[in-house]
Amino acid sequence: xxxxxxxxxxxxxxxxxxxxxxxxxxxxxxxxxxxxxxxxxxxxxxxxxxxxxxxxxxxxxxxxxxxxxxxxxxxxxxxxxxxxxxxxxxxxxxxxxxxxxxxxxxxxxxxxxxxxxxxxxxxxxxxxxxxxxxxxxxxxxxxxxxxxxxxxxxxxxxxxxxxxxxxxxxxxxxxxxxxxxxxxxxxxx
Length: 189
Ligand SMILES: [Ca+2]
Ligand SMILES: [Ca+2]
Ligand SMILES: [Ca+2]
Ligand SMILES: [Ca+2]
Prior knowledge:
The chain is mainly α. It has helices at residues 2-10, 38-41, 51-60, 63-67, 77-88, 98-108, 118-121, 131-140, 143-147, 156-167, 177-187. It folds into two domains: 1-32, no CATH class; 34-187, Recoverin, domain 1. The radius of gyration is 17 Å and the shape is globular.
């Protein structure tokens, strides 16, 4: 992906990606993000990220905006399903195969939720998941209901509740450096 973006960039087809973050309103978010060093985000230097420290980065770097695909400043189930799908499709070939599904389940599903099996999700049995199958699977396993009220749109604070919890793998209310490295590898795209 990075090479492709670079190629587009060089040929001038992706002019907005080069703009400063404070640039024009119609600016697209950068095509890929680089996760910052843990120490950069750990503002109080206690070797953990709390919710405020993660939220500051999410706000500064436009993470919420990236998830808000229709750009109405709120996330609805479609925005979240599509963002999750993009992240889940690790090799960006627009389908999710079983190995990608298994890795994603590990990040996405808390112990309290049963993701079922890949075969449950693969409704047409072609051994790949498309966006519709993922949306159906998230719904059928109550993933959306677990993280937010799926009928409603959610704002920044509610998004942060979900996003922080997804990084805080052991649920102790803080992100240690191991959780951060793991989350940065998975969630920053
Ligand atoms: Ca801290
Ligand atoms: Ca894939
Ligand atoms: Ca399928
Ligand atoms: Ca933790």
